[in-house]
Amino acid sequence: MPEASESAVMDNPVGHLEGITEKKKPETGRPAWRKAVAAYEKPSTPRSVWQICNTLIPLIALWVISYLCFESYKWVSLLLAIPAAGFLVRGFIILHDCGHGSFFKSRRLNDAVGMIFGVITFTPYYYWRHDHAVHHAGAGDLERRDVGDIWTLTVKEYFKLSTWERFKYRLYRNPIVLFVIGPSFIFLIKYRFVYGKANRRERYSVYLTNLGMLAVAGIVSYFIGWQAYLFIQLPMTMIAASVGVWMFYVQHQFEDVYWEHHQEWDFVAAALDGSSFYKLPKVLQWFTGNIGFHHIHHLSPRIPNYYLEKCYNDTPLFQEIEPITLFSSFKTMTYRLWDEESRKLISFAPLRGMQNAQ
Q1: I need a surface site. Which of 63, 117, 147, 322 has the fewest CB within 10 A?
Q2: DSSP 3-state percent helix, strand, coil across the chain (nearest 5)
Q3: Domain that holds residue 127
Q4: Total-model pTM
Q5: Mean pLDDT, rounded, of the chain
């Protein structure tokens, strides 16, 4: 089976992946999904522009208020980092939709807006887009876990590791590392450099994003001082990064998530059973751009985020998926490994008994 290229996935995410699936095996027994999503795959320019406005304007306003409070009420500035982080997450969803070509009809406009929000969210647009395309092309495929995903091992793979490698894996899967230290490292440090075989556009995306960030930081610091800039910007960025990684984690790291070996992997099953329906309170759903309807998003990345809920409400097929609630989602932090025997994600706790049985 050929690897899915970034351009193919972005030009026609659903059609390209359908072709891969259908060559290998018949489609799963969930009929009429193409017809169900087709009506929602056309972006609305007014709605997209309005989403940009209701994201950027409040973010800038919160930034200004935070600065006004900086001298006398630093604690207020820190508190305002929480809602400001929410708008940064919302800004990342705009970048995300632009990367899928679903936010505007024009590809050039998608890329231009994606680059702008890349600077705002500290994310190199084209570089990130490539990894995310790879993620969509192979989510739930046990043979394609190395790019754009949370590091997840099977029980058998874990038992084959050395003591040092097990320590590294356990450290990586520790919630403090995974949701606090790791996200800040990714968005503040890792995305400042090029890794792997990035093409010219992806490399320049990193360089231009860095230049844009430096320009914004330099201009703002010139007027208010670098101490105020860092005091205001860093907390909101770090909180937003943690929220973003948490959302991605919950969307693909739940107990009955779909994982399958390459030869048996099925696109529709991977989308509907390998991506969660994260049912959040309405306020959090708004800040996260409806991305909790992730099973629909993976089935059709061409649907703009503002149509995902309507697609869900209008389509009984998507309502069959059992939701993960905000409360129940915290249990996912205990999952560490994929057990091929039970076909579930499990914690480290049962490993001693499993190892003794082998």
Answers
A1: 322
A2: 70, 5, 30
A3: 6-357
A4: 0.90
A5: 90
